[in-house]
Amino acid sequence: MIDVQRLRVLRAVADHGSFSRAAAALRLTPSAVSQHVAVLERSLGARVVARSTRGVTLTQAGQIMVGAAESVAAELEQAKQQVDRLSTGRVQLTVATFTSGGRHLVPGALRRFTATHPRTLLHVREGEPEDTLPLVRQGAVDLALAYHFDGPLPLGPGPSSRLQWTALLEDPLYVVMPEGHRLADRESLDMAELAAEPWVLGCLKTEAYLRRYAERAGFAPEVRGTTTDYFFARSLVAAGMGISLVPGIALVPTVPGLHAVPIEPPTPTRHIGVATIGRRRDRPHITTFVQALREQATGRQTHR
Predict the structure, then answer these.
(1) Which of 99, 141, 271, 275 could bridge to 94 as Cys pair (CB 3.0-4.6 Å)?
(2) What confidence score (pLDDT) does residue 234 get?
(3) Backbone torsions φ then ψ of 51, nearest 5 degrees
């Protein structure tokens, strides 16, 4: 019989990459974490982790068991919600979202959703996709509005086969520059034309993306400002610090004195969608909220 607590410990080791960090997260000693993993390995007759000077990684058996751990956690969370519904008579729905998506898509979807499910108890939590997508997989949130650039979804450790991704919209990035800039009146720009410009970042993850596109255009960007908020970045652009790369969805509210110019193909783009976990047919309120997000996204694309 496999102990659920040992699966929980293994999942923490996978999430944190070391026994000591997993121990801190679980409020256990590193020795206790090591003992839990050792007992699990003995019960399975297989190693679940590989230790090295760089930390701890999962073996193939360990990946299987972390998948099982997440399935168990998700089932227990769903069972808890069903019990809560019996006692309160209300369905609960927890939605995770990244900031700009939360600002521009979630409020409208909430209004659409509550029109048909007024008694559902809603919770919203903010986070970046690399933090919220694992929460969906673990059953800690019901769905996550998320995005990725031209790489895969940032799922974190563990299997992703149970996640369902519903694409909502393509969110191209624009070059934002001050009014009066020599390129501000252009209908579109090639990245190579921006080689001499200083840059301000509105998201830390945008830097790697910017550098990748700049490298294709033959230059290395000079970054003069870094922020975690696109509105703040645009304010710095308006103050003359440089230009910025901003997704279309984050161009509102407008900042006076700025121009947003499209980039010529291949255009840098964020792919926005919603992640859920299997068996949505058993939880119709999740399906309804996904549909509300889809309608909100479609309405936004229509009014661009």
Answers:
(1) 141
(2) 96
(3) -95, 140
Q: Name the one residue in this structure whose structure tokens are 């031209």.
A: 150
pLDDT at 219: 96
Other CB atoms within a 10 A radius of the CB of residue 179 amount to 11
SS3 content of the chain, % helix, strand, coil (to 5): 45, 25, 30
Query: Mean pLDDT by 10-residue block, N- to C-terminus, for the chain (304 residues)?
Result: 84 86 89 90 90 84 83 71 64 92 94 92 93 86 92 64 86 95 95 96 87 94 94 95 95 92 93 83 83 90 54
Q: Is the dihedral of CA 24, 64, 70, 129 positive or negative?
A: positive
Tokens coding 167: 């694409």
Pull the structure tokens for residue 270: 């964020």
Enumerate residues 6+ apart whose C-beta is below 8 A from 86: none
Going by C-alpha positions, the residue among 169, 163, 182 that lies closest to residue 272 is 169
b/e burial code for range 183-213 (CB count within 10 A of at least 16 → b): ebebeebebebbeebebbbbbebbeebbeeb
Q: Report the alpha-carbon distance of residue 238 to residue 223 in Å, rounded.
A: 16
Strand partners, 170: 271
What is the tens place of the pLDDT at every residue in 109-141?
A: 999 999 999 989 999 999 999 889 988 887 889
Whether residue 247 contacts residue 173, with contact meaning beta carbons closer than 8 Å, is answered with: yes
Nearest to 108 by CA among 250, 303, 293: 293
Per-residue DSSP letter, 76: H
Distance of CA 61 to the CA centre of its chain: 27
Q: What is the 3-state secondary structure (H, E, C) of 190-227?
A: CHHHHCCCEEEECCHHHHHHHHHHHHHHCCCCEEEEEC
